[in-house]
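2024-03-11 09:14:02 DEBUG pipeline.ingest accepted 1 chain
2024-03-11 09:14:02 DEBUG pipeline.ingest length=146
2024-03-11 09:14:03 DEBUG pipeline.predict start
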Amino acid sequence: MIRLLDTEEISELYCCVDAGLIDHIRDSRNYVVPIEEDRYIMAFHTMNQNKTVIYADGRRCIVSSDDEYVRQCCEGIDRESGLGEMFEFFLALTSEDVYVLEGLENKISDLEDELLTRGKPDRNGISRIVALRKEVLAAKRYYEQR
């Protein structure tokens, strides 16, 4: 079963890594570090810009995040291997991605149709363009993480 921690509890995860990696965890935005064979620690930011840190080895998987969707994706995952739990978690996390992108595409298309039929965008149209651009940029940042 994946062990879930709030971000305030991340120090409990530090028992699994050496002191040098702890500083790296605090200071880096995104990373994947193979600690040794079959042990990994990684961090990334969700679409909502919440930092998530994951540690996995042959016995356990620990996830530290305050992101509600991340926490929801962890529910019900119970494997004998922590690495298996980590892989299943990432399948759950990314399973809806294509629908998120299709939703953005539809919003853009609907806004284009609406603005083109009206001719010139009014204040509301411009505000919606700006809001949609921010949503697209957030998705871009999320998918460009390495």
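2024-03-11 09:14:41 DEBUG pipeline.report The chain has two domains: 3-94, 97-143.
2024-03-11 09:14:41 DEBUG pipeline.predict end
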